[in-house]
Amino acid sequence: MSDITSHRKSNTFYVVLIAAAAALGGFLFGFDTAVINGAVAALTTSFNANSVFVGLAVSLALLGSALGAFYAGKIADRYGRVKAMIASSVLFTISAIGSGAAVGIWDFTFWRMLGGISVGAASVIAPAYIAECSPSHLRGRLGSLQQLAIVIGIFIALLCDYFIAVSAGSAELPFLFGIAAWRWMFWTEIPPAVFYGISALMIPESPRYLVAKGKELEATKVLSKILKGNVREKIAEIRQTVSRERQPKFSDLLARSGGLLPIVWIGIGLSVFQQFVGINVIFYYSSILWRAVGFSEQDSLTITVITGAVNIVTTLIAIAFVDKFGRKPLLVLGSIGMTATLGTMSVIFSNAPVNAAGSPTLSGTPGIVALVAANLFVFCYGFSWGPVVWVLLGEMFNNKIRGAALSVAASMQWVANFAISTTFPPILQYFGLGTAYGIYTVAAAISLFFVLFFVKETKGMELEQM
Q: Is 78 helix (H, G, I), strand (E, B) or coil?
């Protein structure tokens, strides 16, 4: 998808407003994936479900996300970016209502998968819309609103979980109107989901989409609000770009030998390692993780909220420095830091004393060290592998294969996320936290060598040079 490139003066305030409205999809993306954190233990009790079914309930939403991401581009190209956003907000709202009203683990899983589809769609539509409505001199910063919105969404979801659980006394106890607190955790998603839909109704359609559909008069009106001055030249430029484009094919990704091109494998590797270090275990399961080693429910949720705040700060750091230091140095530093912090947590959890129920307990110095190591891990991930992988995936492929290669790499990211999220509860139950974090430590260590030997720096390069 092309973007609005121009050195003319732009209506910055207006552009920021419509980009922020689109980025609400990223906020819901983060909110929806993290809101389950405070409810995991309560789900186990309420539905009398074992660790395997709870793991599936959390992670099947990710397969829904893969499905949503796969079809969102086609839907947005056919019906428009704005209509796709509105449809996504409707699915978000229905999913939130259904998840909170679920009567069993299976219908709960269905509602979560429905939410996953809208998460996947939002993850594709919002950045595309922002790029297409942004003047070139603002595009990088406005594009980063999506990543910032995701981590803020995660933080707000964790904060809501915390206040609801603390007010009720526990996620399993009654909250407002005698309804269990964990149900209200999911219902807190309803207001932002509705607001996303209302915001989508108030923003203009992408000029790029309008030109592609032959609606140049409408496109001119939208561009006139985004760019100051005569926009006919820009309309002609978009028309020329649209006429040259063709839909990327997956056959473009194949080498002469019949296998995938090496650059596609590198993109898949970046996506897989981004998930295999276990970052989403922190955001999906951290409240039960800390409870598993002896912290109270309230203290566990407090720690989780702090972790969410750390994630926001480090994303801002990455946005500030990714163009200054380059992609590869940040990934290398991140891999080293993640290996050290994950290794520390693995050792502490493996050597923690166990209580009468056989669960590890942490107190005193080991507890503090584990807490610091967990937040340092999030810090190391937040300035490196979190945002930088998305930056690389957007620019490392040449123009001919970019769309198809990105969809393959992004799909593998959801699959890897699914694998990690599904396996964590059984590993925790049967092998313990030490083993789980040992596996993530090995993945972080391998990621360092992967970057050193296979990833090339793209800082300062034009897309046409890839």
A: helix
Domain locations along the chain: 8-203, 248-466
In angstroms, rounded to a whole number, what is the distance separating the alpha carbons of residues 215 and 434?
59
Q: Which residues are paired to 10 by β-bridges?
A: 227
**CATH fourth-level superfamily of 8-203:** MFS general substrate transporter like domains (1.20.1250.20)
Do 234 and 4 contact (CB within 8 A), yes or no?
yes
Q: For 183-192, 213-222, 283-292, 387-396, which range has the lowest pLDDT when averaged over its residues? A: 283-292
Is domain 248-466 classified as CATH 3.40.50.300? no
- pTM across the whole model: 0.74
**C-alpha to C-alpha distance for 142 and 45, rounded to whole angstroms:** 43
Closest among 457, 413, 405, 462 to 63, alpha carbons compared: 413
**Residue 30, amino acid:** G
Alpha carbon distance 57, 114 (integer Å): 12
Question: Which token pair is 280?
Answer: 């989403």
pLDDT tens profile 229-270: 667 777 777 777 666 655 656 666 776 666 788 888 998 999
Note whether 8-203 and 248-466 share their fold. Answer: yes
The arithmetic mean of pLDDT across residues 332-340, rounded, is 96
Q: How far apart are CA 160 and CA 162, in angstroms?
A: 5
Comparing 84 with 283, which gets the higher pLDDT?
84
Backbone angles phi, psi at 29, to 5 degrees: -55, -55
Phi, psi of 354, rounded to the nearest 5 degrees: -110, 150
Which whole-number Å values give the CA distances from 324 to 131, 169, 259, 327, 460, in the listed order?
Answer: 21, 47, 35, 9, 9
